[in-house]
Amino acid sequence: MSGNTFGRQFCVTSFGESHGAAIGCVVDGCPPGLELTEADIQRDLDRRKPGTSRHVTQRREPDTIEILSGVFEGRTTGTPIGLLIRNVDQRSRDYGSIMNAFRPGHADYTYWRKYGIRDYRGGGRASARETAARVAAGAVARLMLARSGVQVTAYTVALGGVATSQRKLTEIADNRLGCPDNEAAGRMEERLEQVRKQGDTLGGIVEILVTGCPAGLGEPVFDKLDGELAKALMSIGAVKGVEIGAGFAVAGLLGSQNNDPITPAGFTSNNAGGILAGISSGQDIVARVAVKPIPSIAKAQQTVNLAGEPVIVTIGGRHDIAAIPRILPVCEAMVCLTLADFLLRQQAVAAGR
Amino acid sequence: MSGNTFGRQFCVTSFGESHGAAIGCVVDGCPPGLELTEADIQRDLDRRKPGTSRHVTQRREPDTIEILSGVFEGRTTGTPIGLLIRNVDQRSRDYGSIMNAFRPGHADYTYWRKYGIRDYRGGGRASARETAARVAAGAVARLMLARSGVQVTAYTVALGGVATSQRKLTEIADNRLGCPDNEAAGRMEERLEQVRKQGDTLGGIVEILVTGCPAGLGEPVFDKLDGELAKALMSIGAVKGVEIGAGFAVAGLLGSQNNDPITPAGFTSNNAGGILAGISSGQDIVARVAVKPIPSIAKAQQTVNLAGEPVIVTIGGRHDIAAIPRILPVCEAMVCLTLADFLLRQQAVAAGR
Amino acid sequence: MSGNTFGRQFCVTSFGESHGAAIGCVVDGCPPGLELTEADIQRDLDRRKPGTSRHVTQRREPDTIEILSGVFEGRTTGTPIGLLIRNVDQRSRDYGSIMNAFRPGHADYTYWRKYGIRDYRGGGRASARETAARVAAGAVARLMLARSGVQVTAYTVALGGVATSQRKLTEIADNRLGCPDNEAAGRMEERLEQVRKQGDTLGGIVEILVTGCPAGLGEPVFDKLDGELAKALMSIGAVKGVEIGAGFAVAGLLGSQNNDPITPAGFTSNNAGGILAGISSGQDIVARVAVKPIPSIAKAQQTVNLAGEPVIVTIGGRHDIAAIPRILPVCEAMVCLTLADFLLRQQAVAAGR
Amino acid sequence: MSGNTFGRQFCVTSFGESHGAAIGCVVDGCPPGLELTEADIQRDLDRRKPGTSRHVTQRREPDTIEILSGVFEGRTTGTPIGLLIRNVDQRSRDYGSIMNAFRPGHADYTYWRKYGIRDYRGGGRASARETAARVAAGAVARLMLARSGVQVTAYTVALGGVATSQRKLTEIADNRLGCPDNEAAGRMEERLEQVRKQGDTLGGIVEILVTGCPAGLGEPVFDKLDGELAKALMSIGAVKGVEIGAGFAVAGLLGSQNNDPITPAGFTSNNAGGILAGISSGQDIVARVAVKPIPSIAKAQQTVNLAGEPVIVTIGGRHDIAAIPRILPVCEAMVCLTLADFLLRQQAVAAGR
């Protein structure tokens, strides 16, 4: 495959540009017999959709999912599941002014260098809209994992310099930012509003928690569980860093601090983040990703045009202030896809024992 | 493949345990006509080998490479390159005392859960010794990349809480720790000595710098260059975090700070770390990894045995205090393998233009 | 991937059932800059479509292709090409009578054993309708190959026991059966009519000729060009045998007869069928496939139902008498996809020379 | 992978040339806990080895297998199994006379076109010696299959124009040619002797029979069981055709003749060769391959040299008269590898049901 297929046993192949006819994907390798309806997928898609607040784009993207194949009488058949989302509000005229300029922090320049093509329509394949296909596929993976008791939840632990001081998962649904700390969420909202007025954007940190994951998932040495999670999460456009468990903090720890002691009742700490030697340990899996500020800012920026001449761009259109919270279901989807794949890969060899 | 093959076009398949007969790998997809001798590989292997100081294990592991195939009259033929390193000093008796206990922070527990096997011989496949095969394969990739002007260098930017205050690449070779700051390297050595006496171990941070990388490498959307680098680096046993460019710092930046302005003379900053939208931009690629402390410590640790009973383990044998600096050539190897693969993948489609 | 993706560099992922909402595929890895319109694809689809004569099914399957992504301003962008064909005439009621019986020679029994599902709607994923997605993807590959001067043509060399006595390629378009021998085509039509009246069906042999293929395609040792062609062609439902060049006739030849002598003007024969040691030689590539009779026959047949009880089935509905000639563009598509993939794979390593 | 890896879940990666230091392979994905010794592998290797009669090469190739990894205390561990066979009798001087000429029917010409390299040492990677690695890997697969009751047997059904008139499997071991018809075997030996005196070589047909294969193996639509078997067998250098069940004979059958009726006691015929719609049916799997005459003949042949000038070559050295019977264990190995892979792939999705 040429970069648009993820997974080996539970596989998703994605297609589509933000301003083309449609986006979608093919989920191949899903076991037969899984109950699946469009509503199961729509639920996650709706969490990713824009237009729910001032801080996210007001574009109308209904993101209505259609299951094209692979489901018969409400259950998966084991054959590939085709998923389609039509694009309905492309308004490519908004992008006319930046047709010939490379927007800083955007895919414009590298896509042009790689493909020799300048598709100026709002990012094309590099648009965050592409992640809707990930979310749709991830919803299928999530259902499969649920049968095994695996739950995947992403939440905001920092935004625009405001960090949470607790992880109260019950509060995630209380605020619009998916933050397990209502008080911090309030301050994050203030920061978003402040920066919105400045015509600027914000970055943050998302944590993903997996509960109920059986021990034994992950395929050493190259396809370690943490390695594949890192790829899965870093393949999301806005992500610039991934860490597992104690993450970068391990650099300052002693071995005696970092090692998680084992007792008959289980591990007494979880610096490993649920993954030891690339294999799940049965503990909660904990990952965090660094989310960069949305590159589309209203402020004037220095760049060059296709002719290499210096120009100043100011990006209009309707854009989010932060990738958070819309990135939360995308992070969950990529973790679900990774775990679903490893669950099947482990079944392949363990079933014969 | 089942977890031991890396890459799609330039591929390495690895095998071998620390206490078996040999370790090695097969490099498949290397173009024909590349000058390659055992000395080219041995050079990198020697940088990884133990026994060069008090802080690294004194085991005799000569790591002598043998090229078994794929080279004729000093050049690669385009057929698979078989690489073999015999194990010569296994001394599995050292591990007798921990035969039945799961060492905290080690692969013992998860390998047992995954495979149902307790291979107590010093880590077996999960031993850091496995990385010698990566270094050998990476040396071949490095030669291929050098023809295109790509250079990959890893160096230590933090160890045991001591951080470098500069990145003077000329100083990397001056000190034993591969640190681009001789003064910091001195303090790191002191910290190592201190912790060695305590029977404990240290973590740190390694930065990898790629110069000369052409624009256009990376395959959106899932096989982004940063995604594959994250996988490649996170697949190294001791790594618990990966970041690109500004990395986790982006969480606190504004869009106007994080976006790298473009001028006719090029980008004026490199927060992106040389990768935009998953594709190399032609700037230097910059990645950092968090390296956990070596889990084998001399201090007593709480754990359980195979019967699930609580036991105290004290790990003897000859072990490093830190994975740094031996991990440096491993990081370089994984980055070389990733870039070699993407270089060929890009040639596949770009050649026809 | 889980069985529905073909190719490594030029890849197609297929989805869809005969009686679901749609069939389609994603073509990933097509180089950018290739001129591509829906008409280019429709042309091949129309050659595969039913309803053009008495001997093929009269169902209305307009097979209208829609390009969903990957094309901008009439050219491919290098991103995945989503292709969609809606199903418009499913009439699943025709299949009611065989809902609980396993039709001999059909997928019914093995799909049920594999997936534990009985999708009785006309074959579902195993229907020949699935091949429309192959033809659509193959049309893209064909365009890419044409740029390199490669032409792929399939034609009928035997049908119902009637064999061609010549291979006059100019006559292929003269008759409805794609036969390079108008006289034989006439006798084949008589045989079809005769068997149609008996409520029976016919098998045949298709030959595929590739001209203009450059030397050097194919990846020893497992991914030999003939190996992948064999897989590609045998993966078509009706195919039970594949041979290259002299094929099964080599069993009766002496080495001195079978070896193709080489002269300064080229090879003087082509028993090898254009492939030596799994690599194209630059000669014409010649392959033949054995096509089984359509299993849906009007005659009464002995079988069992889901309960394992003996039943007699008579298959109504509208079915072809022979897979020929509709299988011809499918054979071409699979060969085009195989060659496109190997062309890119060869460019990956040869470009650096 | 670049052509030297076979399989997706049970994978083998092969390396080595006939006149290099060694050949071997890495088997990745074998489940843990399988009893495996070098003797298990040596048994199959010995069936492939030369020097057992006048009709096969007298070179000394002891083909001694060494297990380098992946086995602990007599059982597989689930980690990659490294297998090594040293080359001990290369005598590359024998090939000096054909250093600059392209031997008809050999890989010389196409390897030179593909790789730009002229490795004149007896075929190098294209030598039949490469198949020893397949046999070694296949022996591991065979053991795994045996646990599930699957047996794979290849035998000679035609050689030099002499066909068997029966398939009495008990007679296979009675004669040196692996022929299930002792009387035919006698006539085949006479034909071999006759042709040996003429300095020529012979082709034949091998049939492979699989008993005990469970229903449900194979992954539609592209990775059908027959498709992968066709690739597996066609990837053997000497094979020019593959057919399943009735094979090419289906071209002359009516649907009513070809369809295998189903009764409560099972299928009443096996024209399908145990595979329906790409999935095993539980019947015996039957495949046949066409084996070309060994291209190395003692007779003078017309060819060109590297400069493109016409030359006459006469190939000395010690060569077989026919690839049969040494190819028999190679055919078995490829079928074992294919089935082992599909068995694990099926377990991946079926285990969760």
Task: Tag the structure with descriptive keywords.
homotetramer; 353 residues; alpha+beta; five-stranded antiparallel beta sheet; 7 helices; 25% helix; 22% strand; globular
How would you summarize the topology of this molecule?
4 copies of one chain form a homotetramer.
Chain A: E1 5-6, E2 11-16, E3 22-28, H1 38-48, E4 65-67, E5 71-72, E6 75-76, E7 81-86, H2 108-115, H3 131-147, E8 151-159, E9 162-163, H4 182-197, E10 204-211, H5 225-234, E11 239-244, H6 255-258, E12 262-263, E13 266-267, E14 275-276, E15 279-280, E16 285-291, E17 301-304, E18 310-313, H7 327-350
Antiparallel strand pairs in A: 1-2, 2-3, 3-7, 4-7, 5-6, 8-9, 8-10, 10-16, 11-16, 12-13, 14-15, 17-18
Helix pairs in contact in A: 1-3, 1-7, 3-7, 5-7
Report what the structure shows:
- 4 copies of one chain form a homotetramer.
- Chain A is of the alpha+beta class and 353 residues long.
- Helix content of chain A is 25%, strand content 22%.
- In chain A, the strands form 6 sheets. In chain A, strands 1-2-3-7-4 form a 5-stranded antiparallel beta sheet, covered by helices on one side. In chain A, strands 9-8-10-16-11 form a 5-stranded antiparallel beta sheet.
- In chain A, a hairpin with a 2-residue loop joins strand 8 (151-159) and strand 9.
- The longest helix of chain A is centred in the C-terminal third of the chain and has 24 residues, at 327-350.
- The model of chain A has no long low-confidence stretch (mean pLDDT 93).
- Chains in contact: A-B, A-C, A-D, B-C, B-D, C-D.
- The A-D interface holds A 8-9, 29, 31-33, 78-79, 144, 147-148, 220, 343-345, 347-353 and D 8-9, 29, 31-33, 78-79, 144, 147-148, 220, 343-345, 347-353.
